Amino acid sequence: MANPSQRTLLFTGAYAEDNQSGVCVYEFNEDSGELKLLDEVSGIKNPTFLNVDPDNGRLYAIGEIADQGGKAAEVISFEIDPVAGKLTEMNRTRSVSSSTCHIQRDESSKYLIVSSYHGGLVGLHSIDENGQAGKLLDEKKHADLVTVREDQQSRAHSAFYSPDGRYVFVQDLGLDKILAYTVNENKQELSFHGETQLDAGVGPRHLAFHPSGAYAYVINELNSSVTVLRYDQEAGRLEVLETVSTLPADFGGESYCAEIAVSADGKTVYGSNRGHDSIVVFNVHEDTGRLSPVQYISTEGGHPRHFTLMPGGKYLIVANRDGNNLVLFNVNPEDGKLDFTGYTVSQSKPVCVKPAVFQR
């Protein structure tokens, strides 16, 4: 049964024009798994990724703006009213010099980090005492920091903090590298720490750490695989252990990966396939962190751009961009396998789903 003193909200981002609803807020019924729409926000072009800060009642969204005939980025801050399930815009701030695809926040809510696929950039923003996104403190261009072959183009796709919060790992899909940074608080800038080279052509997109902190998993968009990495906490370094396919052996079509997640108990890793339109479920080998596939299940819609394990671990929700729907799955507590509940919610081009639990 759901805890009556808590309320779970689901925030979604989407591809949208300025005059369309791009960010939505749903109430999540933890007993039935049903979603109830509480709020819709328009006025932002392509708020395709979100970050939720439930402790401080804040939501941060990326947005796209026109700039001298091209595209640049902005970050929009919202105050969350968890009782009404409503968002109130607080401010907008100019971000990096190209459109962004991902936004991350540190545990202490001091900084926001944005990633730019088209610009090959990563940017650092402050968060002010009111919880608003502050000015852009630093912008790093990957091509200025690491070797880039003539046939490559930098494509920064996401940034994730290490479990200890000391390092930031940025996946560069175009360079087949994971770049590590630290945040220099004295200089208010990102400091390049090192790189992990992956196999040529894999295209690393998103990363998730194992709850033990010993391993990390990066999902590779271009060759439909997951790379298992050992995390050296002292050195702030990732070491490649193995790379495994996210597709069944008999699939011969075109497919590209998107999102990855690890269960709270560390026993299961999930990944999404766009084209095969499925979630792959991997069993995690406890002693090595390596993976074995145990299930491939249809996402009941095209192009599963993002998904999330809901708090409590009983459900998983998939955002199918081309299916224009949010789809609910049961999670088997024994083996982590998924089962389609039959429940879906229609939404235009959803590409990000972020849950959060609030105290009533």
Folded structure, characterized:
It is a single chain. By secondary structure, the chain is an all-beta fold. It has strands spanning 6-14, 23-28, 35-41, 50-53, 58-67, 70-81, 86-94, 102-105, 111-116, 121-127, 133-141, 156-161, 168-172, 177-184, 189-197, 204-209, 215-220, 225-232, 237-245, 256-262, 268-274, 278-284, 291-298, 304-309, 315-320, 325-331, 338-346, 350-359. A hairpin with a 4-residue loop joins strand 18 (225-232) and strand 19. The relative contact order is 0.13.
Characterize this entry briefly.
The protein is 0% helix and 57% strand. It has no helices and 28 strands.
Strand content: over 45%
Strand order of the largest sheet: 3-2-1-28
Query: Ranges with pLDDT <50 over ≥5 residues?
Result: none
Secondary structure: helix percent: under 10%
The string of secondary-structure elements, in order, is EEEEEEEEEEEEEEEEEEEEEEEEEEEE
User: Kindly, what is the distance between the CA atoms of the first and last residues, rounded to a whole number of angstroms?
Assistant: 16 Å
Global geometry: globular
Average residue pLDDT:
97
Helix run count? 0
Total DSSP E strands:
28
Query: What is the gyration radius calculated from CA atoms?
Result: 19 Å
